[in-house]
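Quick start: load a record and inspect it. Here is DegT/DnrJ/EryC1/StrS family aminotransferase:
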Amino acid sequence: MIPVIRPVLGDEEAAAAAEAVRSGWVAQGPRVAEFERAFADHVGAGHGVATSSCTTALHLALLLVGVGAGDEVVVPSLSFIATANAVRYCGATPVFADVDAVTGNVTAKTVETVITARTRAVIAVDQAGVPCDLDEITALGVPVIEDAACAAGSTYRGRPVGAGAEIAAWSFHPRKLITTGEGGMLTTRSGDRARRARRLREHGMSVSAAERHASRTAIVEEYSETGFNYRMTDIQAAIGLVQLTRLDEIIARRRALAARYQELLPGYETARDPAYGETNYQSFWIVLPDDHPIGRDALLARLAEEGISARRGIMAAHLEPAYAGTTADLPVTERLTRRSLILPLFHEMTHAEQDRVVSVIAEAR
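Running the structure step on this input writes:
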């Protein structure tokens, strides 16, 4: 079976995890702090706050910009459902904006059409690693959270994605380029926001458990606001530190394979770089022409019959039962989610495996 993705994991990650276990410190501790610094440096952000997932990082980010009950937050429907769900966690309402047909991302124009007096924030997603045009969206004057779940190592206007964001959220799920199993990160330019996010991820505690254990004096912590248990473990962070050293190599390989797909699949719309940046090709999607002989689901079934694991394209949250009753005019979103599929792309993929994928698609035409 050719998988849709396979994490790049080796003996170094296993050794790092084992060392964390042998240290006796397996919860959030010194390795988490080291990973936060290393990741924030890599993406050009001021501060990193490790979390249990990108979803929990998004929830914290929304709280940091003051989103609460009765507010609206503009989000793309064309995104994993966690983007919209995080808004609901705050008691707010996600308002869906359409996306650009080429990048799959919201734009200043699509966001502006759905902004209302109740809009408190915008979540701009770097869909499948393709950077959004953050500057134009930020210029609308509404707080912007960058959902960079898929975008570690992508670039925007010559800088790493996330470097220009007030707040960004990241994922280390195994479908991403680097992984800690589960896990996420919030990055921000604000030291005050980073400090509050660290408190909120640890039950609202004024002094972290790691600081209390390291202290030679008794410390009695305080809880000034309702917090959450959104912590990352030192075992995960140890793996993440090794993974981070692999990121540039992983991106180079994925970009080479993506370029080869583009050569082998003429006539299809595909994931590609926007004019203002470079994608890490976290996923490689194609969009079937409207006159394609078979539909997207039939092509997925044919690929599966040939031992090839592909996926439907990016989901549209507003079409899921959880968002039944939502009214939204999203023609581009609905076409992309109906006509697109994600092809296998992973670090060790061979040209022979890629040729197998392409041959099945060619036979379907």
